[in-house]
């Protein structure tokens, strides 16, 4: 692999007296699929919120190696981080629920296919050309999960599993290089989960993405992740390959409690 | 550009225009009807511009009459000095731009506010604007401006309204308009897909204010008289009622709502004492049976009709 896509350096976030993420250092290689696991309340989603600019870190640094120069994203607002090439999905689905499936994806293409205010007021030739491109690409992306037949439905009317799929499509529509997935398989059954895991791997290779994945379903994490980080009470307690994590004493203790001898 | 949808819209506009023209020429419509048409045009533009701010971008505003008053006073002051079509054009442009600038000025400090708090802040701004007009010498204070040359007729109004509403509609159906809607839906998700929500909140205010300024200019050049009292909280609420009744997030809803409510209040003019009661009862009834507004977030289109037909035939 050609080096890192993202590095996190001693990242800390405290809310008042509580330190949700403490001194976390990690890296994600280009084209790598990395898992992040940990018990409930370990700070996984907080870490994602720090990576995407929803929260500003208390200390530490986040650096993206996506353009020509490494770019520190500390203190950058979320919309700028999106432009750097980092996209995410949300644990508690955050779709634009009163808008159509197609609009959800079109909105995410805001920065990838552009035209000015004048074009949008007067619907110039440029507007029609660009809108045609936007629509074509949006439908193509929706095709990944077979959502291209439901373009006109409202996002809120989709079944739960498809809403999660739409979130992934929307994230892809920002043309990211790093994709952060927050529990993409939550609430799905066994076969849906397996299918999703396969699709994530497929998306990763066909779009050349680096993927950072929070997941509680160990079958997903263990089967598709190349490397796994384990977070507990805001502290990284382990990292390694799935085999290493499976047999790591600290991890077992964090999940099941200490063994009393 | 020459899609069936656009041709249908132009055909409909032409039909309405011709119908009014014939009714006016044959004398069935008198000057009283013409005033109602003018009011409908002004209310339509006000409602569509407020809908952009409140219905599409989701920023609750109670200050729309303030934006309108800036356009009205600016236009009136200019056409009093230059009573010609060119003066009117100049007044309209100056008024709408001035209003857009004030929209920017309101949008920026209230960026962090939302919901009720934003409504109170915009209400406050509109009251400040009103007080300024009350106290300025150039606007002749509480007595207001009189004898503003009447440079508007209903034909002008019709064309200006149609053109402005078309521009608002175009804006909404663009990537910028979609960005505004995404703010209404979910600010965090909107930012996460790369939308600068501060920019689009301010843009929605500025553009909404711009078109409210145009409607103010139309008002000034049609109704001779301007008084600061016209542009108070009640006016803002009137506009908001049209928007909510027509459907937050539906331009056709605002158009129908403006036409309907203006007509009803004109028809009830003869029953002055009962007017507000009937009006209020109607609003309550509509809100009880159609809480999402007459059209919800739908637009009137062929697709809507074909869908309705399909539903009927499926029964």
What does it look like?
The complex is a heterodimer of chains A (261) and B (315). Helices cover 38% and strands 24% of the residues of chain A. Chain A contains ten helices and ten strands. In chain A, the strands form two sheets. Chain A has a six-stranded mixed beta sheet with strand order 6-7-8-3-9-10, sandwiched between helices. Chain A has a four-stranded antiparallel beta sheet with strand order 2-1-4-5, with helices on one face. Chain B is mostly helical and 315 residues long. Chain B has 13 helices and no strands. Classes of the chains: A alpha/beta (261), B mainly alpha (315). At the A-B interface, helix 2, helix 3, helix 4, helix 5 and helix 6 of A face helix 6, helix 7 and helix 8 of B.
Using brief descriptors, characterize the structure shown.
heterodimer, A: 261 residues, alpha/beta, six-stranded mixed sheet, four-stranded antiparallel sheet, 10 helices, 38% helix, B: 315 residues, mainly alpha, 13 helices, 74% helix, 0% strand
Q: Secondary structure elements and their pairing?
A:
The complex is a heterodimer of chains A (261) and B (315).
Chain A: E1 4-15, E2 18-29, E3 33-37, H1 44-51, E4 59-64, E5 71-72, H2 78-84, E6 86-88, H3 101-108, H4 117-122, H5 125-142, H6 160-173, E7 178-182, H7 190-207, E8 210-214, H8 218-224, E9 227-232, E10 235-240, H9 242-246, H10 249-256
Chain B: H1 4-25, H2 31-56, H3 64-81, H4 85-107, H5 115-135, H6 154-172, H7 175-185, H8 187-192, H9 197-220, H10 233-246, H11 251-267, H12 272-289, H13 302-314
Helix pairs in contact in B: 2-6, 2-9, 2-10, 2-11, 3-4, 3-5, 3-9, 4-9, 6-9, 7-9, 10-11
The proportion of residues forming helix of chain B, as a percent range, comes to over 70%
Describe the main β-sheet of chain B briefly. none
Distance between the termini of chain A: 44 Å
- Indicate the proportion of strand residues of chain B: under 5%
Q: Give me the strand/helix succession of chain A.
A: EEEHEEHEHHHHEHEHEEHH
Widest sheet, order of strands of chain A: 6-7-8-3-9-10
């Amino acid at each position: 692999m050609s080096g890192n896509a993202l590095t996190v350096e001693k990242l800390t976030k405290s809310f008042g007296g509580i330190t949700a993420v403490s001194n976390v250092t990690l890296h994600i290689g280009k084209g790598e699929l990395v898992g992040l696991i940990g018990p409930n309340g370990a700070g996984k989603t907080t870490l994602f919120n720090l990576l995407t600019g929803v929260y500003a870190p208390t200390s530490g640094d986040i650096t993206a190696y996506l353009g020509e120069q490494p770019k520190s994203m500390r203190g950058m607002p979320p919309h700028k981080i999106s432009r750097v090439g980092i996209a995410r999905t949300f644990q508690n689905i955050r779709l634009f629920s009163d808008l159509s499936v197609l609009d959800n994806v079109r909105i995410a293409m805001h920065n990838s296919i552009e035209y000015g205010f004048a074009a949008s007021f007067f619907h110039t030739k440029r507007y029609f050309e660009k809108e045609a491109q936007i629509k074509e690409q949006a439908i193509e992306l929706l095709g990944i999960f077979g959502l291209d037949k439901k373009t006109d439905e409202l996002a809120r009317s989709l079944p739960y599993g498809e809403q999660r799929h739409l979130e992934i499509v929307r994230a892809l529509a920002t043309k990211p290089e790093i994709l952060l997935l927050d529990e993409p398989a939550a609430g799905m059954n066994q076969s849906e989960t397996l299918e999703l895991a396969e699709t994530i791997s497929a998306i990763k290779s066909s779009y050349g993405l680096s993927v950072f994945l929070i997941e509680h379903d160990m079958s997903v994490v263990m089967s598709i992740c190349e490397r796994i980080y384990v977070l507990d009470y805001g502290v990284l307690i382990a990292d390694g390959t799935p085999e290493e994590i499976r047999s790591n004493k600290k991890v077992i203790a964090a999940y099941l409690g200490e063994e009393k001898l | 550009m020459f899609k069936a949808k656009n041709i249908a819209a132009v055909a409909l506009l032409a039909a309405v225009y011709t119908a009014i023209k014939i009714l006016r020429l044959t004398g069935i419509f008198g000057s009283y009807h013409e005033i109602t048409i003018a009011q409908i045009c002004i209310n339509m533009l006000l409602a569509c511009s407020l809908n952009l701010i409140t219905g599409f971008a989701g920023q609750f505003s109670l200050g729309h009459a303030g934006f309108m008053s800036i356009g009205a006073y600016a236009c009136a002051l200019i056409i009093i000095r230059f009573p010609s079509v060119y003066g009117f054009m100049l007044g309209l442009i100056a008024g709408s731009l001035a209003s857009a600038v004030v929209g920017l000025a309101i949008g920026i400090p209230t960026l962090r506010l939302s919901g009720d708090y934003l409504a109170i802040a915009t209400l406050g701004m509109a009251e400040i604007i009103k007080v300024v007009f009350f106290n300025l010498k150039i606007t002749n204070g509480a007595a207001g401006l009189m004898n503003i040359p009447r440079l508007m007729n209903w034909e002008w109004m019709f064309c200006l309204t149609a053109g402005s509403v078309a521009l608002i509609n175009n804006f909404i159906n663009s990537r910028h308009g979609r960005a505004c809607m995404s703010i209404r839906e979910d600010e965090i998700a909107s930012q996460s897909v790369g939308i600068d929500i501060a920019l689009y909140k301010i843009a929605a205010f500025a553009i909404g204010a711009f078109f409210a300024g145009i409607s103010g200019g139309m008002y000034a050049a049609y109704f001779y008289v301007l008084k600061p009292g016209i542009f108070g909280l009640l006016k803002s609420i009137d506009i908001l009622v049209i928007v909510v009744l027509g459907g937050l997030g539906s331009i056709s809803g605002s158009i129908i709502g403006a036409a309907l409510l203006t007509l009803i209040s004109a028809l009830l003019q003869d029953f002055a004492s009962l007017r507000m009661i009937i009006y209020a009862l109607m609003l309550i009834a509509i809100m009880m049976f159609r809480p999402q507004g007459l059209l919800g977030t739908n637009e009137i289109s062929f697709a809507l009709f074909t869908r309705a037909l399909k539903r009927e035939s499926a029964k």
